[in-house]
């Protein structure tokens, strides 16, 4: 069996990691491919870090498209081949006329959870403006969702299954930029990357609207590093690239902003 206590020793998402250890042990014992529900980005990153050093199991994650935030994880013994077709997903179109009562991501998620479905069964929700949204779910709740989700905000909706080829995902727009800063403080770099004042960014950080590598960071003075991913609610994401020290001992930072 797996070294449970050693794996859990430094885990931040201890409860979720413990459940995944149980599934991994099941996969080893039964020589089977076991699927998790949808994992949030912080849990997924931690799982890959913790389990990556184990040789007896292998992992494969997928959320329906390359940029998916929430993904299911397939777990198997290292001897069993894994491919994306084994990660079962159902894609639905939530169709309605939202022209006069626009709905955002939170509205669609709230309506889904109000039916009694738990968050772990729901993947990414892609809002399509006045047309509605598309949503990934685990297949076992598909019939229930189709029967019970009838309204989002004040808008009646119809739920129709889709093929993955019908997924409406626009490739992320990105912009490369360079900034020179006196430090690697989060508020300084994020304000430069997102083109807003440092005080405004500090307020967003303090309000828990900013995450670094999918973890909530509420301290503007938090130091970031090359490779970190900064996300700001409603603004997009910022990848920190190469960092160099100038002759005046300041930091020249390459940034990639995704919208």
Topology at a glance:
Elements: H1 4-8, H2 14-30, E1 34-39, H3 41-51, E2 57-62, E3 71-77, E4 90-95, H4 105-114, E5 122-127, E6 132-137, H5 142-148, E7 151-152, E8 155-156, E9 158-162, E10 174-181, H6 186-194, H7 198-206, E11 210-212, E12 215-216, E13 229-232, E14 236-245, E15 251-258
Antiparallel strand pairs: 1-3, 2-3, 4-6, 4-9, 5-6, 7-8, 10-15, 11-12, 11-13, 13-14, 14-15
Describe the structure.
This protein has helices spanning 4-8, 14-30, 41-51, 105-114, 142-148, 186-194, 198-206; strands spanning 34-39, 57-62, 71-77, 90-95, 122-127, 132-137, 151-152, 155-156, 158-162, 174-181, 210-212, 215-216, 229-232, 236-245, 251-258. By secondary structure, the chain is α+β, with helices and mostly antiparallel strands. It folds into three domains: 4-86, Ribosomal Protein S8, Chain: A, domain 1 (2-Layer Sandwich), CATH 3.30.1370; 90-166, 2-Layer Sandwich (Alpha-Beta Plaits); 174-258, Structural Genomics Hypothetical 15.5 Kd Protein In mrcA-pckA Intergenic Region, Chain A (Roll), CATH 3.10.290. The strands form four sheets. The chain has a six-stranded antiparallel β-sheet with strand order 10-15-14-13-11-12. A hairpin with a 5-residue loop joins strand 14 (236-245) and strand 15. The longest helix is centred in the first third of the chain and has 17 residues, at 14-30. The mean pLDDT is 93.
């Amino acid at each position: 069996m797996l070294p449970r206590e050693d794996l859990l020793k430094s885990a931040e998402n201890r409860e979720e990691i413990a459940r995944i250890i149980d599934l991994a042990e099941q996969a080893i014992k039964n020589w089977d491919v076991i699927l998790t529900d949808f994992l949030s980005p912080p849990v997924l990153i931690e799982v890959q870090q913790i389990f990556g050093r184990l040789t007896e199991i292998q992992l494969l994650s997928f959320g329906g498209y390359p940029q998916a935030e929430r993904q299911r994880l397939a777990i198997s013994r290292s001897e069993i081949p894994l491919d994306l077709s084994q990660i079962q997903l159902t894609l639905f179109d939530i169709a309605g006329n939202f022209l006069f009562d626009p709905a955002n991501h939170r509205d669609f998620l709230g309506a889904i959870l109000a039916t009694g479905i738990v968050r772990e069964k729901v993947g990414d929700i892609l809002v399509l403006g006045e047309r509605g949204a598309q949503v990934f779910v685990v297949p076992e709740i598909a019939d229930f969702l189709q029967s019970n989700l009838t309204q989002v905000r004040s808008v009646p909706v119809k739920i129709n299954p889709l093929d993955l080829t019908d997924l409406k995902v626009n490739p992320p727009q990105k912009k490369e930029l360079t900034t020179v800063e006196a430090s690697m403080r989060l508020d300084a770099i994020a304000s430069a990357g997102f083109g807003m004042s440092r005080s405004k960014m500090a307020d967003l950080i303090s309000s828990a609207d900013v995450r670094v590598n999918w973890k909530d960071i509420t301290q503007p003075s938090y130091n970031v590093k090359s490779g970190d991913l900064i996300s700001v609610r409603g603004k997009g994401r910022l990848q920190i690239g190469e960092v160099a020290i100038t002759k005046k001992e300041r930091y020249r930072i390459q940034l990639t902003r995704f919208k």
